Amino acid sequence: MIAIQVLAxxxxxxxxxxxxxxxxxxxxxxxxxxFVEDDRTLTLSVARGETEQLLAKHEAELAVLKYRMLxxxxxxxxxxxxxxxxxxxxxxxxxxxxxxVGEANxxxxxxxxxxxxxxxxxxxxxxxxxxxxxKDWPADVSEEDAAEYEKxxxxxxxxxxxxxxxxxAGVVF
Length: 173
Description:
The protein is mainly beta. The protein has a single domain, classed as Beta Barrel (Porin). It contains one helix and eight strands. An eight-stranded antiparallel beta barrel has the order 1-2-3-4-5-6-7-8. The longest helix is centred in the C-terminal third of the chain and has 16 residues, at about 145-160. Mean pLDDT is about 80; it is low at about 10-25.
């Protein structure tokens, strides 16, 4: 069996912007799952989101291949690995980080005939390895500002991100 699902999340990725606190980026995406067994799936999940706050623009993209297993009647755990891209822009500063990540989620999934509804209540995305980094800011910035931008770009790449309430609905065939 194969399941195709649309997902929405309140926090599938987060960005730690220069000078502000961590906050979530709402994302949208899709999943395609192959049922290895009735209670286990292999899932390709892609999501993208962006937000603007206090003159800064934040974008996130996430593509993960994960193994989801039921641990009760409707409760599941999933483990996966993938690639995450985070972008931050504010005035003349632009930072982009692409990294290899691991992901773990806990949630519930219900199936009614060909329809499925689920929610990953809690999850975590952990960075394993930086794949690429692009940093762009004016050459004439002060040493203090350059050090702050460098610290922010390191924080964007190295931070673990929490996920809250990723909701999805789909069709199983």
